[in-house]
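Request: Have a read of the protein record below and say how the chain folds.
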Amino acid sequence: MANNFKSKAWDPLLIICQIISIQLLTYFFASVLLFFESFLFGTPLTLDYIFNVDYLTSKELSGWVIMFTSFVVAAILCLNILVIVERSKLCLDFTCTFYFFYLISCTLYSHFPTGFFWWLTIIINIIGVSIVSERLCMKKELEPIKLSGTNKPSQNMDNSEEIEMGLINK
């Protein structure tokens, strides 16, 4: 019998739905975060803070705030990838896909980014999200499998080999 646990069959509809879900959830949380920042700093609430590449600059305090916000959004992206994708092998793919669509969105909204600070922030985010989300997914993949009918994994995890060999009775 073939084992269908996390099968490797290519499912384009699943991949497209995962990409759309990650995009929507991450931009939703970014918008909520920017709402609180605009309330805190008294700035107008606008999509420019997310998609206008000219706002992410090192010359003004607002650029540093947007950079910090992008790091918080990157942490949220890690959690979104953990919940939606759940595969450590796919974390880099989904991270690069997210930031590729972000580049396209920024280019369509304002213009192609040419600023060093923008590219530095995005590269740091890609590296950070890839590493952190991969570690989180690996940790989740390595969790013990819960047996049916119980709420917790096997109680004798340390003595499992001895039990199998019949050296220890339950």
About this structure: The longest helix spans residues 12-41. The helical segments are 12-41, 48-51, 61-84, 91-109, 116-141, 160-165. The chain has six helices and no strands. The radius of gyration is 21 Å.
